[in-house]
Amino acid sequence: MREIDGGICAVPGVRACGIKRGRYGVAMIACSGYAAGVFTRNRVRAAPIEVTIDHLRRSGGRTEGIIANSGSANAYTGVRGIRDAERMAGIMAGILGCSPEMISVASTGVIGRYLDLDLISSLAKEVVPSLRTSPDASSDAARAIMTTDTRVKEIAVEHEGFHMGGICKGAGMIEPDMATMLAFIYTDADVGPGLYPFLKEAVDVSFNMLTVDGDTSTNDTVLLTSTRMVECDPDSFKEAMEYVCVSLARMIARDGEGATKAMEVEVTGAASSEDARRAAKSIARSNLVKAALYGEDPNWGRIVCAAGRSGAEFDPTKISLSISSSIGSVLLVDRGIIVDGVLEEAKKVMSSDEIFIHIDLGAGAGSARSFGCDLSHEYVNINAKYTT
């Protein structure tokens, strides 16, 4: 696996661009291919998701492009929201000269506010002349869909002769079953018509193991598009999909709203893979663990507590727990026995901006990892005044 420059534009056949005006932006991605999507499980599902699902069904998975906006989520907007999302697709379809059902739509921003279609149309017209294949075009598209994000999130790889690139946005309202996140992934690999199983499996070990604040968004969308230009071994494709999705999930964790530290939790020795997932998500989700992370406080009892309430089956007397970072690694609990005299060393380890937590439950061979961040004062500041 070799990382390369260019984001989604590292994939031949992908043109992109984006523009941002204050809190509002429009990104456009043009590429002929076949697409599959994974979407939020929130019962309140945004209009662009309903429209995109319908379009993918009507087109048989064929796609010509994506149009996405930031500033308004177009969620909980009723019949008008559906109509507005269809009009967004029509804007892109008119530009590319294709039927609207060949266009996917995505939105992110404030829930319960209608789209400003005049503004979106105006921004789209500005974007069109800049649709291009250069690496900076991918960055422009990623920047256009940022809300509380503080950095562009993109990656591209070359693997076994094919390319895969992705961009995403996401910083808050992040919880397993995806996040307030949009992710657009492109590849020239041909693994046949069955893209969805590969996407779903990659999402399950990446975005669905990601949490910032425990809230599941109305707009979560991950779209995978393949131009089918390069024959590909399914195992190689699976490997690249997981690599790209996990890399993007880590970027979101590092950029969590107000975050000062990223956290990765690895659970091993679980009775089953599902138990490992439960424990890993419970630890990464715990506000007490997250607050301790922010304060660089090696209060490891909170980690054990979070594992214990996860529903995973294990014997507490068999747990081993360690934390590590670029500074070093510290064993805190060894098969149920507290390790004395290591808290000062643990505090030094926690001064790094990326912390790894490893807990062995001693109950079997199940394993999983989750991704998260600390909980800072700034998270409250951002979300206390988000719409004002």
UniProtKB/TrEMBL annotation:
The record marks T108, G109 as: Involved in the stabilization of negative charge on the oxyanion by the formation of the oxyanion hole. InterPro entries: Arg_biosynth_ArgJ, ArgJ-like_dom_sf, ArgJ_beta_C. Pfam families: ArgJ (PF01960). The record marks A179, T180 as: Cleavage. The keyword Acyltransferase applies. The keyword Magnesium does not apply. Catalyzes the transfer of the acetyl group from N(2)-acetylornithine to glutamate, forming N-acetylglutamate and L-ornithine. Belongs to the ArgJ family. It is found in: Cytoplasm. Transmembrane segments: none annotated. Substrate binds at T147, K169, T180, E257, N383, T388. One of its GO terms (cellular component) is cytoplasm. Keywords: Acyltransferase, Amino-acid biosynthesis, Arginine biosynthesis, Autocatalytic cleavage, Cytoplasm, Transferase. Pathway: Amino-acid biosynthesis; L-arginine biosynthesis; L-ornithine and N-acetyl-L-glutamate from L-glutamate and N(2)-acetyl-L-ornithine (cyclic): step 1/1. The active site is at T180. It catalyses: N(2)-acetyl-L-ornithine + L-glutamate = N-acetyl-L-glutamate + L-ornithine. PANTHER family: ARGININE BIOSYNTHESIS BIFUNCTIONAL PROTEIN ARGJ, ARGININE BIOSYNTHESIS BIFUNCTIONAL PROTEIN ARGJ, MITOCHONDRIAL. This is Glutamate N-acetyltransferase. GO terms for molecular function: L-glutamate N-acetyltransferase activity; L-glutamate N-acetyltransferase activity, acting on acetyl-L-ornithine as donor. It comes from the Archaea. Its EC number is 2.3.1.35. Heterotetramer of two alpha and two beta chains. One of its GO terms (biological process) is ornithine biosynthetic process.
